[in-house]
């Protein structure tokens, strides 16, 4: 049986799954930002999120990517707590 080869530039399964995690985190952050009451703050946070993800888009080291996902999830939780407090 001949070995199947991926086309150049194709992601491995592990890379594909990690990419899905990153995209899911990005979507969750943008959805949470929608709940920010002040428009200026929403705009600032949206720009911040976009810039953070753009700045790290070329990261390839597995450990670094996992660490960034963990930090992003912690920041998301903090944002959600802050929004909840602001609404109460």
From TrEMBL:
It is found in: Mitochondrion. Transmembrane segments: none annotated. It holds the Pfam family Complex1_LYR. Residues 20-78 form the Complex 1 LYR protein domain. InterPro entries: Complex1_LYR_dom (IPR008011), Complex1_LYR_LYRM2 (IPR045293). GO terms for cellular component: mitochondrion. This is LYR motif-containing protein 2.
């Amino acid at each position: 049986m001949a070995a199947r080869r991926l086309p150049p530039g194709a992601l491995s399964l592990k890379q594909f799954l990690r990419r899905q995690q990153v995209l899911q985190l990005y979507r969750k952050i943008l959805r949470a930002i929608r709940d920010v009451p002040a428009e200026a703050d929403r705009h600032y946070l949206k720009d911040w999120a976009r810039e953070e993800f753009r700045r790290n888009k070329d990261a390839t080291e597995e450990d670094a990517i996992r660490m960034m996902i963990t930090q992003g999830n912690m920041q998301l939780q903090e944002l959600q707590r802050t929004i909840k407090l602001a609404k109460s």
